[in-house]
Amino acid sequence: MDIRRLQAFANVYALRSFSRAGEELMLSQPTISAHIAALEEELGTQLFDRLGRTILPTQAGDVLYRYCTTIFTQIDYAKADILALSQRVAGELSIGGSTIPAHYIIPRLVATFLSQYPEVRIDLKGGDTADIAAMVADGAVHVGIIGAPATQPELVSRPYLEDALVLVAPVRLRDVALTGPDWRERLQALPWVMRESGSGTQQTLGTALAKIDIEIRTLHTILQVHSSLAVLECVEAGLGIAAVSQLAAAASLERGALVQLEAPGLDMRRNFYVVYHARRYLFPALRFFLTSCGID
Questions:
Q1: Are residue 95 and residue 182 in the same domain, yes or no?
Q2: At 57, which CATH number?
Q3: Which 8-state DSSP code applies to residue 63?
Q4: Which of 118, 281, 285, 290 is close enough to 295 for a disulfide, judged by CB 3.0 to 4.6 Å?
Q5: Domain hosting residue 82, numbered range
Q6: How many domains would you assign to the chain?
Q7: Is there a single domain that holds both residue 143 and residue 116?
Q8: pTM score, two decimals?
Q9: Cα separation of 60 and 83, whole Å?
């Protein structure tokens, strides 16, 4: 139903007059009559009895008016809530995080943010870098933190935090040396545990390898997994070596469950990026979250 027709109907009902309803809404009487006629046609029933100059609602008119008052009240509430939301930092904020940010970065970031803005409700969703970028582009999440810049042209990618991948290996491979003239061949011959192709980790590794003229597909990959935790477990089980974020590897290296292989010729530094939609409205909760990430 057209809200303008309902407003015309409610005014005629309350004022018992087509002309006075027109004056109230600053519409002509023929326009009011047309709105009522259209409603009656849509509903297939008569809403008013026209008794000379007297207007009386029918039983159907009484029913519709009760619903109209509820509808208009809910619209007023919605306007009030939206106005309040625009004037304070509140409401739901949906954040997407690729594997490393979701586990090691976003929880502390959210804790700090909520200590300042406790009326915000956070919904955290995970996935790989490609998944989260797609969610931001589709509007499934408001903002994401991922391990590589988003490829979608409508998304803004801002560097947030520096990181680096490190090579981790089972303890039995602690003596592997990746130096000397043939270190590239030895690197390719080692058994590899690899993250999935949509991950920022694999993108960073592929870029680093390309700089030293190695294609990632030429590595001796024996297993592909979909989380950094799974990578670490596989390496600890002795399946092979892997490139993982230093944030994820720190605890395992500290307790001696894994060893780090030094590869001076392999530069695997990277950034994590905050991504958001360039054309979406930055409501207060989103705007202040971006500010907390250092983005103005």
A1: no
A2: 1.10.10.10
A3: H
A4: 290
A5: 3-87
A6: 3
A7: yes
A8: 0.65
A9: 35
